[in-house]
Amino acid sequence: MQLTPLTERFVLHFGEMGSRWGINRTVGQIYALLFISPQPLNADEIAETLSFSRSNVSMGMKELMSWRLARMSHRSGDRREYFEAPKDIWEIFHTLAEEKRRREIEPTLSMLREALLATPQTDEERHAQARMREMHELVEMATVWFEEVQRLSPETLEGLMRLGAKVQKVLGFTDKLRGKE
Amino acid sequence: MQLTPLTERFVLHFGEMGSRWGINRTVGQIYALLFISPQPLNADEIAETLSFSRSNVSMGMKELMSWRLARMSHRSGDRREYFEAPKDIWEIFHTLAEEKRRREIEPTLSMLREALLATPQTDEERHAQARMREMHELVEMATVWFEEVQRLSPETLEGLMRLGAKVQKVLGFTDKLRGKE
DNA sequence: TTGAATTTTCAATAATTTTTGAAAATTGTA
DNA sequence: TACAATTTTCAAAAATTATTGAAAATTCAA
User: Fold this and answer.
1) Which of A112, B5, B20, B136 has the CB geometry, 3.0–4.6 Å to A136, for a possible disulfide?
2) How confident is the prediction along chain A (181 residues), in pLDDT tens digits per residue?
């Protein structure tokens, strides 16, 4: 696939953003390319379009697949593997959130849970543990909430989001009465 | 401040997690230390506790301040700067979300907005642009929604989150009727 | 002002991460 | 099974990022 100025900018942007997230430039660019490609691409096409080595693409695909941000497909009479990004943006959000939770939130929650089991030996430890408890409570609540919300269909979610503004208007009033902004 | 096994584990965990987010190990550890510290710490104390060079701490503090995850304070009769992490976990969430939006979402949105202004020259470009439009719409909607939600007070938000489960139960039913998961 | 205390900068070094090419492994088919 | 096509692995090289110590800059009290 040939990059035009329009698509190149998109691809490069995702490369740079990639490094702000945990993924590297290569992976970001490959993903962006698959996202806008009208048809699945094979590894050589990706390597050529982005000027990466073939093996780099192989690594990148492994990473993307582990994030479930790319899928493999095949063409009849062609042994090569073709890759495509999931089409549905809601699905992508969903997947990303789930993987982030698995890789970042869950380990943190277990660390916190374990820390909360310990008996603090000093005032400092007591204080530290109290802070960890606060963090644990909020993270857990947010996670549970997020899980719930994620079970909703895209349509319902969109509806809820649009509703958000209204909920805010109603509730915002109460908040202001309590001086909470 | 002296690290105990309990607090050390917490600090190291945040160091490692830091690298999954865009921030580095040092910054992650400093933040964790400030978070659990019962009182503000000065740069030397931080450097000593975490075995970093003084200058590394200086860099790290600059970064943390830019994320608004640390504040400076002073003690009377002491010229050194003391640092502390904001106490309120809701505030921290809020701040983080805001900075992430500013640094990652907004640049992406402007790139997309610009790309959407271009007139596509080929079918491929037309397709690419359509995909970008989908992405733009969802990201923008999510952002606006998030802004709205963020205006709510922590109390209201907690209420909404607890409500989440119920909303889901009611709405989930409708979804199932429509065969949507 | 001066100068001691403190913080910041910055170029050099260290450490880590990414990228590559070549070799090994795998896959599907003749 | 044998072999050609394809993918993966992996150690070395390249690139990037983090860390440091020394020097410069800043701050504030005398």
Assistant:
1) A112
2) 889 999 999 999 999 999 888 899 999 999 999 999 999 999 999 999 999 999 999 999 999 999 999 999 999 999 999 999 999 999 999 999 999 999 999 999 999 999 999 999 999 999 999 999 999 999 998 898 888 878 877 777 777 666 655 555 555 445 555 554 4
The Cα B80–Cα B39 span in angstroms is 14
Residue pairs spanning A and B at CB distance below 8 A: 174
Q: Test A164 with B141 for CB contact under 8 angstroms.
A: no
Please tell me the distance from the alpha carbon of residue B109 to that of residue B106, in angstroms, as a whole number.
5
Question: Mean pLDDT in runs of 10 for chain B (181 residues)?
Answer: 95 93 93 98 98 98 97 95 96 92 95 98 97 96 84 74 58 50 41
Domains in chain B and their CATH numbers?
5-84 (1.10.10.10), 89-177 (no CATH)
B46 burial via Cβ count (<10 Å: 0-12, 13-18, 19+): buried
With tokens 């080929």, the residue in question is B122
* Touching B: A residues 106-145, CB under 8 Å: 107-108, 111-112, 114-115, 118, 120-125, 127-129, 131-132, 134-135, 138, 141-142, 144-145
